[in-house]
Design goal:
6 helices; alpha/beta; binds 4'-phosphopantetheine; 157 residues; Rossmann fold; 5-stranded parallel sheet; single chain; globular
């Protein structure tokens, strides 16, 4: 049976850091579902449909088997059950990310038994975040080092 992972996030927008985590997850699992999830604590810059399209474009040249979908409501673990995922995958840059991810990993395991694999970010991408990218782009800065070209173009619109 194929091993499936789900890599969830807001991806608002997807960055080179996210692309790196997706690519590394694809080396560990036969298939990776990159899932654009609605986060009620955030007011997104891009719609879920736009984010899905940007994720697809960003992963177009990346080796691995990817499915890109969105989850607008409902529990992440229910999506994981639906696709028979073996694990969740998240990227971590700093201890702040660990503090943020740990309770989510624990509640998701408590709810469904699913494990979360935390993949350390490549230091090259350690300071990149979607929120910083949005801020730099909004203020007219060049974000081409941090996001794929298709995302940089979308941010200028
Ligand atoms: O990129 P983000 O915004 O840090 O991702 C957070 C996200 C969307 C993965 C998280 O909010 C989430 O898992 N939401 C799904 C709803 C859910 O299942 N919540 C309960 C367990 S965390």
């Amino acid at each position: 049976m194929a091993s499936i992972a789900v890599y969830p996030g807001s991806f608002d927008p997807i960055t080179f850091g996210h692309v790196d985590i997706a690519a590394r997850a694809a080396k560990l699992f036969d298939r990776v579902h990159v899932l654009v999830v609605h986060n009620p604590d955030k007011d997104p810059r891009f719609s879920a449909a736009e984010r899905v399209e940007l994720v697809k474009a960003a992963l177009a040249g990346v080796k691995g088997n990817f499915d890109v979908n969105s989850l607008e409501s409902g529990l992440l673990v229910d999506y994981c059950k639906m696709v028979h995922a073996r694990a969740l995958v998240k990227g971590i840059r700093t201890t702040v990310d660990i503090d943020y991810e740990l309770p989510m990993a624990q509640v998701n395991r408590d709810l469904s038994g699913i494990e979360t694999i935390l993949i350390p970010a490549d230091p090259m991408h350690g300071f990149i975040s979607s929120s910083l990218v949005r801020q730099v782009a909004t203020l007219g800065g060049d974000v081409s080092k941090y996001v794929p070209a298709v995302v940089a173009a979308a941010l200028t619109k």
